[in-house]
Design a protein that fits this description.
about 280 residues; alpha/beta; 6-stranded parallel sheet; 4 helices; about 15% helix
Length: about 280
């Protein structure tokens, strides 16, 4: 799972807690990465220039700096499986610009109308409270995750998985994810995304050959003892029985289309020899 965590730097996420926003989210990010998830953290800067009426409550004001940084984040939203944004109601109004699910974690207050907020955000926007309060009756309100919880990484992972199950865009793996584009009797086609620095297991198939076409980024492909750099627009053939894997050596996502031909296309036709994630 590839996650973007974003927070407002001036937000007090837990009354009486002296841990800084930055320290908390770095700790959360590290805990998620230990569980083999890719995490990038964004601090949403606030400033004195604000958008909103002079009579607005402080919690409802949106700074120009925050809007600009949210716009930059949402331009990259499709690089992630999920955006988790803390303390920023305004983030929800950007959520209609992307197909990527968005989770808002907010402290309940009199200035937050959760039903109105969710109804005016994108349909893939979800909400949790960061402290106990009345629960709004809305299918996209997912409960409470308290910041004082000792199991907060697991608590959040459970929420993330629940969201991705409701919007099952891809099948996720530690190295990235894939989407099946076609699955018929004589072929199967996948769109496969590999995260930067990650690689698939060294494997072979006994019942199918594969043809890979790189459509974004590039990858270093292993075919038995040979290594081939496959760049945008290039392709490589993988015969039945040949050991193979792909590494994404670059800073961006590597995306390729895999066309399988043969007698059987099940995931159990995989014989692994090496794996970075303990699946041998």
């Amino acid at each position: 799972m590839r996650l973007a965590l974003a927070y407002r730097v001036d937000e007090n996420y837990a009354p009486g807690n002296t841990e800084s926003q930055r320290t908390f989210f770095e700790r959360l990010g590290a805990a998620l990465e230990k569980r083999q998830h890719s995490v990038e953290i964004y601090a949403l800067q606030t400033g004195s220039s604000v958008i909103g009426p002079a009579s607005a409550q402080p919690g409802s004001l949106v700074s120009i700096a925050e809007v600009g940084e949210l716009a930059n984040l949402f331009r990259k939203a499709n690089d992630y499986d999920l955006l988790h944004i803390h303390g920023s109601m305004s983030a929800g109004f950007f959520s209609g610009l992307t197909d990527t699910p968005v989770l808002l974690s907010l402290a309940p207050s009199s200035s937050v109308d959760p039903l109105s907020l969710l109804d005016n955000c994108g349909e893939r926007t979800y909400l949790i409270w960061t402290e106990n309060s009345d629960a709004p009756d809305h299918p996209r309100f997912l409960g409470v995750v308290r910041y004082g919880s000792e199991s907060i990484a697991e608590d959040y992972l459970n929420v993330y998985k629940k969201i991705l199950a409701m919007y099952h865009r891809e099948d996720h793996r530690p190295w990235g994810y894939y989407q099946v584009l076609s699955d018929l009797e004589n072929h199967k086609v996948k769109r496969i995304v590999v995260y930067p620095g990650k690689r698939l297991s060294l494997q072979r198939h006994g019942k199918r050959s594969e043809h890979w076409v790189m459509i974004s980024g590039g990858g270093l492909v292993t075919l038995d003892d040979q290594e081939i750099l496959v760049e945008l627009g290039q392709s490589v053939d993988i015969p039945v029985g040949v050991k193979h894997r792909i590494l994404n050596p670059g800073p961006d996502l590597a995306v390729f289309v895999e066309i399988q031909m043969g007698a059987y296309f099940g995931e159990d036709d995989i014989e692994r020899f090496e794996d970075d994630f303990g699946r041998v």
